[in-house]
Amino acid sequence: IYFPFPIVVQPSKEIDIAFALSGTSRNADGTFAAMKNIVKAVIDKYGTGKTRYGLIVFGSTASVKVGFSDYFPSKDGLKNLVETFPRSSGSPTLHNALAEAKNLFANSGRSNAKKVLIVMVDEKSSSTPKDVKKEARLIHEKNVLIIAVNVGEGADPSDMDGVVSRNDNIFAVDTNVEPTTIVNGITSVIDKGNILLHILLD
Fold it and tell me: What are phi and psi of 117, to 5 degrees?
């Protein structure tokens, strides 16, 4: 996939990290639990000091569960909240999740912070490629680094062709992956502003 503008991630000590999670496959209980474990591991890595978090859960519809302006004095408080969110039902509409993420960064993101969106899915999206590419482009134009994580065997890697700015901005994991294994790779990418391809399937 080619974007006719540069995706530049400026160095910054402050980071706004948004997650968009969709667990709708036949193995959704396991995949959604794995997604939550990855989210919590990222929170453990960055803490709640200079890093703020947003969280979207989506299926046939998308909804924001945590905004960047929400205050969490401790990591444990945020992690416990993440654990309470149920998964959404219905065929996942990836373009709706991207639209919610775009609004999340626009409405409560910090102008001086590095911006990262981590999209996790376990099933093929019902959105059209055209709609997905349109929403992804609007996010990239705001200098947001997008990381895609396919969880389990039901995810379709081609869905992310229109989401990431480069085809190697994708992680693929099994449900029993050790969260720190993938998070070390994700955080390395965030810190450097570069995405590498990591295939962590058993």
Answer: -120, 125
Question: pTM for the complete prediction?
Answer: 0.88
- Write out pLDDT tens, residues 76-112: 999 999 999 999 999 999 999 999 999 999 999 999 9
Q: How far apart are CA 97 and CA 19, in angstroms?
A: 10
Q: Exposed, middle or buried by CB within 10 Å (0-12, 13-18, 19+), for 131? A: middle
How far, in Å, CA of 169 to CA of 151, rounded? 14
C-alpha angle 37-39-45 in degrees, rounded to nearest 5: 105
- Alpha-carbon span 117 to 18, nearest angstrom: 5
